[in-house]
Amino acid sequence: MPQATFAGGCFWCMVTPFEEMSGIASIVAGYTGGLTENPTNEEVNTRETGHFEAVQITFDPAIFPYEKLLELYWQQVYQTDEYGQFQDRGIQFSTAIFYHNDQQMNLAFQSKHALERSGRFDQPIVTKILPASRFYLAEDFIKTIIKKSESL
Length: 152
Hints:
With 152 residues, this protein is α+β, with helices and mostly antiparallel strands. It has a single domain, classed as Peptide methionine sulphoxide reductase MsrA (Peptide Methionine Sulfoxide Reductase, Chain A). The protein has 5 helices and 8 strands; from the N terminus they run E-H-E-H-E-H-E-E-E-H-E-E-H. It has helices at residues 11-19, 41-44, 66-76, 102-117, 140-150; strands spanning 3-8, 24-32, 52-59, 84-85, 88-89, 95-99, 128-131, 135-137. The strands form 2 sheets. A 6-stranded mixed beta sheet has the order 7-6-1-3-2-8, covered by helices on one side. A two-stranded antiparallel sheet has the order 4-5. A hairpin with a 2-residue loop joins strand 4 and strand 5. It starts with a strand and ends with a helix.
């Protein structure tokens, strides 16, 4: 099954909207886009690794196509803030779509351009569209935090 990778603030902000959807086989939290191998949450939060906090979604495109993932993604993020999401501040919390193939790249750019043309925003959309790179799973304690936040 294909994967989709999205960054948009803290992990739990990105896990919850996708995890209960039909056609989503799995969703994991982690780090991507930077240069440091096997980064820790502590290292990523120094803002020196270049990594984003992100989620990687394995999905069935016959049930939940990539276009639908993009549509849901755009509803979860603040597209015009280059330095984080809401109270989560820092480049590691910035928005980014990481494409895994040319089709995903084209669809990501099309969706971003459609949002820009919609006139919904007074400021430019700064969400980056980048090639997917190595994805490092978040530490176990992050999974615990995510589960606790879901029960609130």
